[in-house]
Amino acid sequence: MKNTTAMADYELRHIEALRKDLAGCTVLLKKDGSFPLEKPCTLAAYGSGVRRTIRGGTGSGEVNSRYIVTIEEGLQQAGFTLTGMEWHTGYEQAREKAHKAFLKQLKKDAKAAKQNFILYGMGKVMPEPEYDLPLNAEGDAAIYVVSRISGEGNDRTPLKGDIRLTDSEVRDILALDKKFTRFMLVLNVGGVVDLSPVMGVRNILLLSQLGVETGGALADILLGKANPSGKLTTTWAAFEEYPEMPDFEDMNETRYREGIYVGYRYFDTFRKKALFPFGYGLSYTEFRLGSCRGGGERCTGHCAYHRGKHRHYGGAAGRAGLPEQACR
């Protein structure tokens, strides 16, 4: 197909269908009932992922696309008034400085390894930089978007700015959670991040990397137009809780010593503490097990059941990953 800015009908249909299901690919990790928001409002928007939204990974995880709706753009298109934009100006300056230092060190390392700089740097990703920027923005609510990119050609590392949060991120996330009555930590990431320093945050959403409509999908979730109803496909824990594999990266001989103790089997068998276990995921509404009585009973909010035993309550529509039938 000719690469043109005009969108074909089938592309528009695909995007429309995709948008409807994106929230089901996100995972609500923590909630206190202050979301969703009733309507678009003044929103203090912090974090690198607001403007530098990541749609996918690197290498085979990346695709060419006609456009991307960043979180900043998606929120503005939904009617939000964003504050804190001066924070992003300061962040870009800190990032540019850190990137220059990163490239300088990369060239030095490539020379020491006697390798071509381009080949040596393929797949390597700069960790998120540290910064010291004021949090002056006001708003009816606030978000902080943590962003991480990863993909083909390079393993992630347990460094601050990669698997671990930076000191700057931890400081600002905790400060915003304390300052704003309605605050949500949003994770625009493709893999596990050690959240142990910020587990006191009241609302945490694993947005993941949803492709070209990532920004619009978050706006839908914040406004309750879509329900974050996905489940975790892996166990999230503090980095120290994962098993060590010292010889995994041996280029000549890799021994898979973990046997059957992979993922949740390891955590369950050796009683390791998980922050969020495999299969975990909340919803805007509440689900309880019990008999759902029809007939003369009036359901408040939403009430649904599966085989007579599955019931949920609350003012926001929700999904529990099972077929549901309306309770009349």
Tell me what the structure shows.
25% of the residues lie in helices and 12% in strands. Strands 1-6-5-4-2-3 form a six-stranded mixed beta sheet, sandwiched between helices. The chain has a two-stranded antiparallel sheet with strand order 7-9. The protein has a two-stranded antiparallel sheet with strand order 8-10. It is an alpha/beta fold. β2, α2 and β3 form a beta-alpha-beta unit. The chain has seven helices and ten strands. It starts with 8 loop residues before the first helix and ends with a strand. α2 packs across α6. Residues 298-313 and 322-328 have low confidence and may be disordered. It is globular and about 55 Å long.
Write a short abstract of this structure.
The protein is 25% helix and 12% strand. It has helices spanning 9-21, 71-77, 85-112, 117-121, 167-179, 214-222, 264-269, and strands at residues 27-30, 42-46, 81-83, 141-147, 183-188, 204-206, 286-289, 304-305, 310-313, 325-326.
- CA-CA gap between termini: 50 Å
> What's the total helix number?
7
User: Which word captures the global form?
Assistant: globular
- The low-confidence runs, each spanning 5 or more residues with pLDDT under 50, are 298-313, 322-328
Helix amount, in percent? 10-25%
- Output the strand order for the largest sheet: 1-6-5-4-2-3
What is the CA-atom radius of gyration, in angstroms?
A: 22 Å
The H-and-E topology, N to C, reads as HEEHEHHEHEEHHEEEE
Strand-pairing-aware structural class = alpha/beta
β-strand percent reads 5-15%
Number of strands: 10
Q: Average pLDDT value?
A: 86
Main sheet record: 6 strands, mixed
